[in-house]
Amino acid sequence: MSQDHESLENLLQEDRFFLPSPEFAAQANAQPDEYAHANMDRLAFWEEQASALTWEKKWDAVLEWQAPYAQWFIGGKLNASVNALDRHVAEGRGSRVAFHFEGEPGDTQTITYAQLLTEVKKTANALIEIGIKAGDRVAIYMPMIPEAAIAMLACARIGAPHSVVFGGFSADALLSRIQDADAKLVITSDGGFRKGTAFALKPAVDEALKGQHNVEKVLVVARTKQDVAWTDRDIWWHEIVARQSAEHIAESFDAEHPLFILYTSGTTAKPKGIFHTTGGYLTQVAYTHKVVFDLKPETDVYWCTADVGWITGHSYVVYGPLINGATQVMYEGTPDTPHKGRIFEIVAKYGVTILYTAPTLIRTWMKWGDEFPLAHNLESLRLLGTVGEPINPEAWMWYREIIGGNRCPIVDTWWQTETGAIMISPLPGITATKPGSAMRPIPGISAKVVDDNATPVADGHGGYLILDQPWPAMLRGVWGEDERYKETYWSRFNGIYFAGDGAKLDNEGAIWLLGRVDDVMNVSGHRISTTEVESALVSHEAVAEAAVVGAADAMTGQGIVAFVILRSGIAHASGDELNTQLRNHVAKEIGAIAKPRQILIVNELPKTRSGKIMRRLLRDVAEDRVVGDATTLADPNIMKKIAEGLKTAKDED
Ligand code: WT7
User: Fold this and answer.
1) Which of 178, 312, 606, 653 has the fewest CB atoms within 10 Å of its CB?
2) What does the alpha-carbon distance between residue 425 and residue 409 come to, in Å, rounded to a whole number?
3) What pLDDT, on a 0 to 100 scale, did the predictor assign at position 627?
4) What is the pLDDT of residue 269?
């Protein structure tokens, strides 16, 4: 197929691949016939997966699809919390550990399924006493402590959709989310522990609630025991929950009953309230958690490092793993407190077997140096996962060698807040993985790479990643903004979901994610993905992390400007020599067209709270503009530091 107007160039070639070991393959939950089985009858396949849940009433029809509106398992009735908890206890698994909780200061809690169920029942009773009814929205603004999961499950138990707002967000961000969902209750804590100190949360709630809202009560967990201001609206969690009955018979809700709203952090516009329902969502999170992570609930210790404030925390800390009866680690703090080996120390302490984390953390570990992981025994690990951003092949190789001891399959899982559950990923006992590729859609899912006319591209070409069939865990809309739902996701291609990501197919049809299409650079008429240039830079031994942007260029339309973080403990050239080396390295890896015009060595990159690089801000710096709205940055000072570094570099020129 000739492609004159290639929507995205295919530049980076990768020849390495890794087969699952025969031992892993033999014991894997998903066996090679899984894909064919799903393809034979996609809807029957999802019905089969839904049957693994406990339903009070079976569904009458599997799917009703009137693009862009889907309903799954219509007429079915179930309760999310019963699926996560009651059925394990009823079937004799009550003494299994659900959470090994590790607080940042080193305090720990071991919580079994039976204990978790009791806490959730009492909390559900407390919510009822407060006056929360099915359908009422509850905002949850908490640190990463067991009560966060308990609060979510208690809401789900009584049919009150939760809206978890990440604890790192400001009072303003909290208020706008409270208003948008019209929440009636806020569940929070006095504070939490982070980077060695107690931070406060309750004051941000008090500040937020000075605005317009219909919040009647604030339920407060005492985590740090710091002093807090108190009003008549506030209730201590430990007081109200302690006096509740430990009995609560859960009512079942419709499969399409709203389970939660989760606001996407949105780097520009007003956040979108992505809303998910119950039956289809639970079906897909449970299925994917079982086959992608190969969970063996009796023996595995599973650890997903995501905060409950993100979709990963919803799907792969709370709902998926608990439905599957997993034993998990939950950690409150940051990876470098009190030392840069904290995560590895916890892996060794609990014998973690499955670790699911984000490329941003993997690249941070690379930057810190190998000595931190190497100081701990990581032999319990048997599977590694990543999510959130494209993982550069070299970061993938480092993860495999240094963390996984060359023994663990890696699952690079592509999905979104909107998709609710994993959509594209290797299956660890089946797929020969390639470093940097999410490989192919999981069984039962249809994803394609298409050109501007929605025509699938041939192998070896790039384009837009789309989902052309409804899936059980898909968003059911943008809360209160139907037009925005249609406009944002369904208008680029008629009746087809466009995720916003660019991707390419390699010569064997494997899918490589190439970053958001808004970030694509246009150099002399060639559309070049940021991901490929960044991966080329990271494949140089001196580089831990890179971010590239296209900056206006009189000659070429856009020129590539690269921001690079170096690895510690590795000898390398400096100054002009390093600069030349890196530019030549990119030219060698992917071609002269992608040679950066300018390379800036920096210590940090601007990232959102969930670890995504904010290229928009780097573009402002590269084009000498005043830096735009940086309120969603994890560290607001970073742009100042980068701009200052840039100024010094220019002065030296
Ligand atoms: C966007 C969704 C899904 C949980 C965390 C992020 C990017 C996500 C991958 C991956 C390349 C990825 C995409 C996607 N993304 N996973 N494995 N490879 N890119 O959820 O905040 O809704 O972000 O994250 O750009 O569209 P989110």
Assistant:
1) 653
2) 12
3) 77
4) 66
What is the pLDDT, as a whole number, of residue 275? 97
Provide the pairing of β-strand 521-523 with 162-164.
unpaired
The pLDDT assigned to 400 comes to: 98
Q: Are 311 and 420 in contact (CB under 8 A)?
A: yes
Q: Which of 275, 389, 532, 615 has most ligand 1 atoms within 8 Å of CB, for mutation?
A: 389
Packed helices 42-50 and 279-292: angle between N→C axes, nearest 10 degrees: 90
Pairing of strands 217-221, 234-236: parallel
Closest CA to 216 of 251, 250, 177, 185: 185
* 475 CA → ligand 1 middle, Å: 15
Is the C-beta atom of 412 inside 6 A of ligand 1? yes
Name residue, tokens 């999905």: 415
Q: Which residues of the chain have pLDDT under 50?
A: 1-4, 650-653
Distance of CA 154 from the midpoint of ligand 1 (Å): 28
Residue 525 · residue 516 · CB < 8 Å: no
Residue 3: per-residue pLDDT: 44
Q: What is the pLDDT of residue 5?
A: 55
3-class DSSP string for 138-158: EEEECCCCHHHHHHHHHHHHC
**Plot region of 523 (φ>0 → left; ψ -120 to 50 → alpha; else → beta):** beta
Query: How many residues appear in the chain?
Result: 653
Sorted by where each starts, the structural domains of the chain and their CATH numbers stand as 22-503 (3.40.50.12780), 520-652 (3.30.300.30)
